[in-house]
Design brief:
The complex is a heterodimer of chains A (414) and B (241).
Chain A lengths: L6 H19 L6 H11 L3 H6 L3 E6 L4 H12 L5 E3 L7 H10 L5 E5 L5 H8 L3 E4 L13 H15 L4 E5 L3 H7 L4 E6 L18 E4 L2 E4 L11 E3 L5 E3 L5 E3 L7 H16 L4 H8 L11 E4 L2 E7 L3 H10 L6 E4 L26 E4 L3 H10 L5 E2 L3 H6 L4 E7 L1 H10 L5
Parallel strand pairs in A: 1-3, 1-4, 2-3, 4-5, 5-6, 6-9, 13-17, 14-15, 14-17, 15-16
Antiparallel strand pairs in A: 7-8, 9-10, 10-11, 12-13
Helix pairs in contact in A: 1-2, 2-5, 4-9, 4-10, 6-7, 7-8, 9-10
Chain B lengths: L6 E7 L10 H12 L4 E7 L11 E4 L4 H14 L1 H7 L4 E4 L1 H4 L4 E4 L2 E4 L6 E18 L7 E14 L7 E5 L7 E2 L1 E3 L2 E4 L5 H4 L1 H12 L12 H14 L3
Parallel strand pairs in B: 1-2, 1-3, 3-4, 4-12
Antiparallel strand pairs in B: 5-6, 7-8, 7-9, 9-10, 11-12
Helix pairs in contact in B: 1-6
Classes of the chains: A alpha/beta (414), B alpha/beta (241).
The structure holds zinc ion.
Zinc ion binds next to loops of chain A.
């Protein structure tokens, strides 16, 4: 625990908290980023100093990191206070703020942007690192996904000697990156999206797949035997000793059951029995607005965030059969200005539903859905979209800023 | 309209290597627009460890990173079927990395590679990456009207005398800031990545008309409401405030 902070770090921490509070009071987000920035200017080693002596888990990957961090926090709270960046500020400024706000917390569960994993490994000396998946995301800004896996592999080799890695055995890029580590706990977390791992990341050969198993016949990279998995019907997580832990999640979809399995694997490394942790995951009803249910004019909306092709595919797996769907697409800076990736998403599963398109780039979606033979209507904004569906439950799928716009319409629902 | 084949066989080459920016979109758009005219389509995905089929009605190749691009070029040269198809007048539509490798040479991973030599052009590295909306005027001979797309590439392409540009650039970089893409015979290459044909329906129909042996413009009209709205939006987004 960081009880004995040097004076400069204490001062930096105090300034950070003030800056964050002021930012919150003026309505500019939750203040995590600005607060962290102020603190790190005063004491560049602040993150390291605040992390010192705590038991930290870092959680990274393209999709599911916010939810897995939330699940992990819920599980670890069984044994103590947990510092966490629950507002999704997943770069060092956000991590610094999360730690500064919970000075007494002995544990920290930190969601980490994929590009900052190396920096966080060095600064936070985590006990556990969880690696969920890697797939294409914001392509006009981010580096190629295989290059990112290579960077992880290198950084893990250098900086994660003392760390236990919890990694997805179903994602070849993750397996390749994590296999340089001595202590790896493998989770069968699944992979709906295989387009970024047709080729062996190690040698460039084609990967052979047989059901869930995959291997490279050239270099031998293959799917490790997972210690943790989700039971076929999704009702339980199966642990390393074959014991089953019942899952009664409020959060929908295959990916959240996988996220739950990962969280149980992490928690058990911190000494929390899965039987104790699993019921705590059931209490999570929404995560920073994701999966939140809101009501308007007799329509019950469930809000699903999907930022990239893999995320959209996962969200189509979550939506209830036959319910109307609102799809909202923006292409602002944080979303990436390029909408080409919507052609990587198969929309044909929406055929036969009532579909309403909204967001800045709804016309891009309209052209896309027409090509897939999906009928739709378009709406100016979420209010108009709601007006176009019958009263009752409605599924809303939106990418990042589109999601934040919708959340704002519902008073930043959590 | 005379249709030379009962089923249009469209080959999408090497999606395992070159499919970074929604490249599937071009295949989907072509199939959609053909079926809307009552033309059956048999889309075929051909991986880089498979033979390129001879005698298909159209060949598509997409964009990707340096490593896969170099591997793709090597395999296509060894295979030989794509160059033969182009020689036989089969339509070929190539995007980004796929466009560069149809030329005489291109740069990847800091060195120069031989291309297939289907198009008389050479590509090298630009000083900066060209990322963003691209627009321009399609050359009149093709009758495709104004073009709109999104580009994201580090290369610059210099056209030889045996090819013409696809368009003259009014926004974005394209080949080198002046022209965009290339055209010779029934082969077209472009830096407009991913679903370029979704935003450029007349270009899609030009390729289809070549594939079915119809005169350009002879395909029956179809509902263009959404593609036209999208085009109008993208051009408006580039207009000065
Ligand atoms: Zn291999």
């Amino acid at each position: 625990m960081s009880a004995n902070l040097p004076a400069r770090a204490k001062f930096a921490t105090a300034l950070l908290r003030t800056a964050a509070a002021m930012s919150r009071a003026t309505g500019r987000g939750d203040g995590s980023v600005i607060g962290g920035r102020v603190g790190l200017i005063v004491e560049p080693r602040l993150l390291e100093l605040l992390a010192d002596g705590r038991h930290v888990v870092l959680i990274s990957g393209t999709n599911g990191k916010t939810t897995t961090t939330r699940f992990t926090t819920a599980a670890l709270e069984a044994i103590g206070q947990v510092a966490t960046n629950s507002f999704g500020a997943n770069m060092p400024t956000g991590h610094t703020t999360a730690l500064a706000k919970a000075r007494k917390a002995q544990y920290a569960a930190l969601e980490c942007d994929e590009h900052y994993l190396g920096q966080l490994l060095d600064a936070a000396s985590p006990k556990v690192v969880a690696l969920l998946n890697l797939s294409r995301d914001q392509l006009d800004r981010a580096m190629e996904v295989t290059a990112l896996a290579a960077k992880w592999r290198q950084t893990l080799q250098v900086s994660a000697a003392q760390t236990t890695v919890v990694a997805n055995a179903d994602d070849p890029l993750i397996v390749w990156a994590a296999s340089v580590c001595e202590k790896v706990v493998w989770v069968a977390a699944g992979q709906n999206w295989t387009a970024d791992s047709a080729i062996c990341p190690n040698c460039g050969n084609h990967l052979d797949r047989f059901g869930e198993f995959w291997r490279c016949t050239n270099c031998g990279l293959n799917r490790p035997s997972p210690q943790w998995s989700v039971a076929p019907a999704g009702e339980a997580v199966v642990g390393p000793d074959g014991r089953r832990y019942e899952l009664r999640l409020q959060l929908p979809g295959r990916i959240n059951r996988a996220n739950a399995a990962t969280a149980l694997a992490i928690a058990s490394l911190f000494g929390v029995e899965p039987g104790q942790a699993a019921p705590r995951l059931s209490e999570v009803a929404s995560v920073a607005g994701r999966y939140a249910r809101v009501e308007r004019d007799g329509r019950q909306l469930r809000l699903l965030l999907a930022k990239n092709p893999a995320g959209w595919l996962e969200s189509f797996d979550m939506i209830e059969k036959a319910q109307p769907v609102v799809l909202s697409l923006n292409a602002r800076e944080v979303d990436g200005f390029d909408t080409s990736w919507i052609y990587d998403v198969d929309f044909t599963s929406l055929v036969g539903r009532k579909v309403v398109l909204t967001g800045d780039r709804r016309t891009d979606l309209a052209v896309r859905l027409e090509v897939d033979g999906v009928d739709f209507t378009v709406a100016e904004d979420i209010r108009a979209a709601i007006g176009q569906v019958a009263p009752g439950p409605v599924e809303v799928v939106a990418n990042y800023t589109a999601f934040q716009d919708i959340r704002a319409e519902f008073n930043r629902v959590n | 309209m005379t249709v030379s084949t009962s089923t249009l066989r469209i080959v999408w080459l090497y999606p395992d290597l070159l499919s970074t920016y929604g490249d599937r979109g071009n295949l989907l758009v072509l199939a959609h627009r053909a079926r809307a005219r009552g033309i059956d389509v048999e889309p075929m995905q051909v991986r880089s460890d498979q033979h390129v089929p001879h005698g298909a009605d159209m060949y598509l190749i997409g964009g990707g990173e340096d490593g896969p691009q170099a591997v793709a070029a090597e395999r296509l040269i060894d295979d030989g079927a794509l160059a033969k198809a182009a020689e036989d007048g089969r339509p070929v539509f190539a995007v980004c990395a796929g466009y560069q490798l149809l030329g005489e040479s291109f740069y990847a991973n800091g060195r120069c590679y031989a291309g297939l030599g289907i198009l008389d052009l050479r590509s090298d590295r630009g000083e900066s990456r060209a990322v963003g909306e691209i627009a321009g005027e399609g050359i009149p001979a093709l009758g495709i009207g104004p073009i709109t797309g999104f580009e994201n590439h580090g290369g610059r392409t210099h056209l030889g005398e045996a090819v013409q540009p696809l368009a003259h650039v009014s926004a974005g970089i394209g080949n080198e800031g002046v022209t965009e893409g290339a055209w010779a015979g029934h082969v077209i290459g472009t830096y407009m990545h991913g679903p370029a044909l979704a935003r450029n329906p007349r270009l899609a129909d030009l390729l289809l008309s070549w594939a079915v042996g119809a005169a350009p413009g002879a395909l029956p009209p179809i509902d263009e409401t959404w593609p036209e709205r999208l085009r109008a939006e993208r051009f408006a987004a580039l207009a000065p405030e």
